[in-house]
Automatic annotation (TrEMBL):
It catalyses: 2-formamido-N(1)-(5-O-phospho-beta-D-ribosyl)acetamidine + ATP = 5-amino-1-(5-phospho-beta-D-ribosyl)imidazole + ADP + phosphate + H(+). It is found in: Cytoplasm. HAMAP family: AIRS. Transmembrane segments: none annotated. GO terms for cellular component: cytosol. GO terms for biological process: 'de novo' IMP biosynthetic process; adenine biosynthetic process. Its EC number is 6.3.3.1. Residues 180-345 form the PurM-like C-terminal domain. The lineage of its organism: Bacteria, Bacillati, Actinomycetota, Actinomycetes, Kitasatosporales. This is Phosphoribosylformylglycinamidine cyclo-ligase.
C-alpha cells in the first residue's frame, strides 16, 4: 500500500506556532539581560547557558547546591486574572530560597514554561517576572525553555518550573549539626500565602464559598485576586547578609507542609524547636481561609505558612545583631522561639500558645 501525504499537514496546523515562539524570545531578551552576572558567557539563544566556573577558585572547597521547584496551582489564579508578570517572583523564591537555606549564594537559574498556545506577550511577561526575581535573589537567568503543548493544555493554560544552582564554602555549610540548645528561633514575615496551599485556598474561597477574584474583601483591604497573587517574598540576599554579620546556625524555608514540618527538617535528633504563636499575628488571609472553610487550625498550619516565610536559628547572644541586620534590610523579623532538649514524645518542632490578635 502506498503512503500518501495528508494535504495541508504542518506543525502550525497541529497547533504549534514557531513564529510566535521566536517573537516571545525576542520580547524576553531585555529582561534576561538585566539578570546577568560577570560569570555568565554568551546571550540568550544558545543551546546551553554558560557560567564561568573559574569564579569558584576563590573557594577552598566549593559545594554546589541545587534545587528545582514550581509554583503549583497559583498559576491558575494568574491565568484567571490575566496577570502574568508576578508569578515569576514566586518561582525564583521557591527555588533560590531553598538553596540559600544551606548558606549557599545563588548563582544561576533556568526556567521551563509550558503553554497550550504561545502568546508572545504573555510568555515575555512571565519571563519578566522571573528575571525580576533573579535580580532580587542575586542570581543570573542563563537559559530556559518555552514549550507549546496544544491538545494537552488549553490555549490559555500554562505552568512554570525552574532549577537553580548556588555555591557555599564547605566549612560554612549550615544545617542541623551547628544547632545548639538555647539557640534562638527568629521568624521572618511572609508577604502573604506565598506559593503553597493554593489547592486548599482555591477550594475553600473560590469553589465552596463562590467568591470572585475581583471581589473587594474588606478585611484584606483589596480584591481577593490581588491578595492571592501577592508575590512570594525572596529572602536570599537577606539570609546571605545575615550570614555575614552574625553566627547563623541554620535556616528553614517555610513552604509546603507548614512551619513546624519545615523547621523540623533542620533540627537534630536530640533537640526540639519550640515556636510561640503569641509572638505574631497571621495576616487576615489566613483567618479568612480558616473561618470560611471551617478549616481546623492544625490543618491550616500544616498547609499554609501562617505568616512566617523563613526561619533563622542563631545563638542567643547573636539575636540582637541578627534582628538589627534584618531591620536594616526592611525585613520584619522577631524572636519566635528557642531550641531545647527533645523529650521522649516530641518531634523536631512544635507550635505552642495562641496567635496574638
Amino acid at each position: 500500500m502506498s503512503e500518501t501525504a495528508v494535504p495541508g499537514a504542518s506543525y502550525a496546523a497541529a497547533g504549534v506556532d514557531i513564529e510566535a515562539g521566536d517573537r516571545a524570545v525576542e520580547l524576553m531578551k531585555e529582561w534576561v539581560k538585566k539578570t546577568q552576572r560577570p560569570e555568565v558567557l554568551g546571550g540568550l539563544g544558545g543551546f546551553a547557558g554558560l557560567f564561568d566556573a573559574s569564579a569558584l577558585k576563590r573557594y577552598e572547597r566549593p559545594l554546589l547546591a541545587s534545587a528545582t521547584d514550581g509554583v503549583g496551582t497559583k498559576v491558575d489564579v494568574a491565568r484567571q486574572m490575566g496577570v502574568y508578570d508576578t508569578i515569576g517572583h514566586d518561582l525564583v523564591a521557591m527555588v533560590m530560597d531553598d538553596i540559600v537555606v544551606c548558606g549557599a549564594e545563588p548563582l544561576f537559574m533556568t526556567d521551563y514554561i509550558c503553554v497550550g498556545k504561545v502568546h508572545p506577550e504573555r510568555v515575555a511577561a512571565i519571563v519578566k517576572g522571573i528575571a525580576e526575581g533573579c535580580v532580587l535573589a542575586g542570581c543570573a537567568l542563563v537559559g530556559g525553555e518555552t514549550a507549546e503543548h496544544p491538545g494537552l493544555l488549553g490555549a490559555d493554560d500554562f505552568d512554570v518550573a525552574g532549577a537553580g544552582t548556588g555555591v557555599v564554602e564547605a566549612d560554612r555549610l549550615l544545617g542541623p549539626d551547628r544547632i545548639r540548645k538555647g539557640d534562638a528561633v527568629i521568624a521572618m514575615a511572609a508577604s502573604g500565602l506565598h506559593s503553597n496551599g493554593y489547592s486548599l485556598v482555591r477550594h475553600v474561597l473560590l469553589n465552596q464559598a463562590g467568591l470572585a477574584l475581583d471581589a473587594q474583601i474588606d478585611e484584606l483591604g483589596r480584591t481577593l485576586g490581588e491578595e492571592l497573587l501577592e508575590p512570594t517574598k525572596i529572602y536570599s540576599l537577606d539570609c546571605l547578609a545575615l550570614t555575614r554579620t552574625t553566627d547563623v546556625h541554620a535556616f528553614s524555608h517555610v513552604t509546603g507542609g507548614g512551619l513546624a514540618a519545615n523547621l523540623a527538617r533542620v533540627i537534630p535528633d536530640t533537640l526540639h524547636a519550640i515556636v510561640d504563636r503569641t509572638t505574631w499575628t497571621p495576616a487576615p488571609i489566613f483567618d479568612l481561609v480558616g473561618k470560611t472553610g471551617q478549616v481546623e487550625l492544625l490543618e491550616l498550619e500544616k498547609t499554609l505558612n501562617m505568616g512566617v516565610g523563613m526561619i533563622a536559628i542563631v545563638p542567643e547572644e547573636s539575636t540582637e545583631a541578627a534582628l538589627a541586620t534584618l531591620a536594616d534590610r526592611g525585613v520584619d523579623a522577631w524572636v519566635a522561639g528557642e531550641i531545647t532538649d527533645r523529650g521522649d514524645h516530641e518531634t523536631g518542632a512544635a507550635l505552642v500558645g495562641t496567635y496574638s490578635n
